[in-house]
Amino acid sequence: MLALTGYSSQRIVVTMSKTLRPSEFISTEQAAEELGVTIRRVQALLKDGRFIGAQKFGRDWMIPRSAMAGVMVRKTGRPKATDPK
Of the candidates 70, 57, 5, 6, which has an alpha carbon nearest to the alpha carbon of residue 28? Predict the structure, then answer.
């Protein structure tokens, strides 16, 4: 079902309405704990669009549990130097 959620003289915003189950989504704090990173790192991943299907509700992000598998967190530290030949 399509719903008109906003209108201005410049644009019309239309979104799909769907019933969201709380068990399908986790907060940024929960995502950080599961990934073993800081909340700030999760926020940076959200900004980069690494969590497919993440939605913002007010000031809070909700991340689908299905998107957690798609995020690969790099190892900490400096990468090892390659042997120049």
Answer: 57
